[in-house]
Amino acid sequence: MDAQGRGRADDIDPADQWVLNPNTGEYELRLGPSAPQSAVPGPRASGARGTSAAGGAARARRTAAPARRPGATAPGGEAAAPRGRGGAAAEPAAGRRGRRPAPRKSKGRKVLMWTGGSLAFVLVGVSAAAYLYYEHLNDNITSVSDDGAGTGGFSKDRAINILLIGTDKRTGEGNEGYGDKGSSGHADTTLVLHVSKDRSNATVLSIPRDLITDIPDCPTTQEDGTEKVIPGKQRTRFNQSLGQEDRTPSCTMRTITELTGLKMDHFMVADFNAVKTLTSAVGGVDVCLAKDIKDKDSKLDLPKGEHTIEGEQALAFVRTRHSVGFGGDLSRIELQQQFLGSLMRKLKSNDTLTSPAKMIKLAEAGTKALTVDSQISTIKKLADLGAELGKFDTKNLTFATVPVVDNPEETVKATVVLKQPQAQQLFAMVRDDVSLTEVKQQKKKEKAAEAARLKGSKAPASEVRVRILNGGAVAGSAQETLSWLQVEEGVTKSENAGNAPEALAKTTLEYAPDQAAQARRLAAILGLSGAAMKPGESVDNSQGLPAMTLTLGKDFKGAGVPLTTPSKVPDDVQKSTADKVECAK
Known about the structure:
Number of strands: 28
Number of helices: 15
Helix content: 25-40%
Strand order of the largest sheet: 5-18-13-6-7-8-19-28
């Protein structure tokens, strides 16, 4: 009889037969009834941790204490340690674990762990062994309020959106030479993770830190528990949505929602230490260089070829920008995406998932590295979330950078603005749960059905004659659309006809029967659905010639932004998938 069977026969929990050897860090199978196990050592442990009751008291003290913002410092200037990290792990009471599969068979619970600086997010299978110090891991986690900026929590029956932030705050051993001196910690690296409703695919949007955007007013919980509204800022760098003027991650959540239209479920924040500790815990991350890199700023010094990096070297890799691509932040984003894909592959490999020692190291590193919103501030909640996030295949995880162009208002180019309409098209795809890897057959069927509705010959753009009315869209939309149609699409026989007699919920295109070919061409240009096309009568334009009528309704999102969700990523959006090995150039 195997160990699992013998344990069940004696009414012994099989997980109790796997015992940690403190000398090797490995779990060993003990076929006899389990003796009391030695405590799993916690960080900076000075002795055995107390009983479960003591752990409960610690949690009570932690709950009563004011929430600490990421990177807050203790009196005297030293970095404040996350709450509850002071002791070794407590052994949970025997009756609390219930029946669990043996660790050697488990690829069990999934926990989302987060890195900082590069904001590498990873899904790690936590074995039953890690559960032995559940309370200890709980004490590692730091949480702050989302101030009502999120949805209140993810749901298993809808898509999931998580904001992932890496700050440039220099807390932690060995980080004095990185980041901005004296910085309160900006949103230095920001990713939006969208996991589809059916969990078949996921998209990660990288938001450039130097993107010029609007930061809304931010109701914020202060360290003493009071609340205040931090005034918003117009036309400023995105990275100032965190840290500046006491803004917390909840303000970055609000800024993302205003920018993309995506409502966030949760946030996770980390600093430089996370990259170092997580890459060391997993035994290093494989990277590839297409050329020699020697960057004096990041201190990365690696020859061309393949390498396995961890710790300080891994942090140097994800901070490198001057020696890759065009030498700016956008090049660094691409490098980080390559790193994240490799890290994902390593963490989901059997070499990692079947090693209890690695799982424990990862659980320790991940929970120490995280600052999360208070909706997911326990291992149980993180495990539930991780179970949902672990369902998609890495080949269907797409990294994409929000398309931007140099800020036209600057002589010396230092910031960027959204490239339109490509940015809005990308946001629309994510909002409407369209996979960037095209794994959803339903979307293909919808696209085919739409093409069937609009089938027939199309007139050349130069022959399309249309009057544009604003019927509920943002002020100036008619003129913006006119300029875009004439300059970008060649619809030169178009004109701005002012405001419509009444507001419409939906944009419509009215045309006469003999204008059907023109209507099909304009619908294709605008991304109109068949439902938006309204057979009717033509009207005379300012020259007395028959024209169609395009009325922009309240659903209008901007010139060039399709009113139907695009099924294809715009050509100039930089993207990659997590399953492919790429070399930094």
